[in-house]
Amino acid sequence: IGDTAPLLATIHENEFLSSTVTFSGRENSHVQMATTTQGYLSTWPIELRALGGRKMSWKYEHLAEGDNNIMLFDSETGEVIATANDNYLTLNKELRHDVVHELVITGTAALFMLMHLMPQDL
Fold first, then answer.
1. Nearest CA among 73, 24, 77 for reference residue 48
2. Contact by Cβ (8 Å): 44, 35
3. I need a surface site. Which of 9, 12, 25, 112 has the fewest CB within 10 A?
């Protein structure tokens, strides 16, 4: 976008596979994201602020060898809202721009944490 693009957020990786996301220009702008792993599934629960705190989770199934696609599930409906990796974000429904920005940011944070769980050659 150039030198005039606004900073939307900063992602700080903490220890133990967690991150702090700080959104620019918002009160109470810190969001904690932590990795929960159970069996072959890693999960990063979030509350989408742009949707009034709606609970969702980024999820990754480790059985899909050689891919790093994560999926965003709506915790209330179980519906897959989006799929992402380090190259793209695909939405399964139309969402407002502020929601999409938040998904890009939280999805990126989840992918950073996922990198620590992946073999180095992936």
1. 73
2. yes
3. 25
Single pTM value for the model:
0.78
What pLDDT, in 10s, does the model give residues 77-87? 999 999 998 78
Helix, strand, or coil (residue 29): coil
Token pair for 64: 């899909």
Query: What total number of domains does the chain contain?
Result: 1
Q: Return mean pLDDT, the chain.
A: 81
Retrieve residue 58's tokens: 């980024």
Q: What is the mean pLDDT of residues 80-96?
A: 90
Is the backbone of residue 115 left (phi > 0), alpha (psi -120 to 50) or beta? alpha
- Our measurement of the distance from residue 38's CA atom to the centroid of its chain's CA atoms, rounded to an integer in Å, reads 18
Domain boundaries, position 61: 35-115
Give a yes or no: residue 92 inside a domain. yes
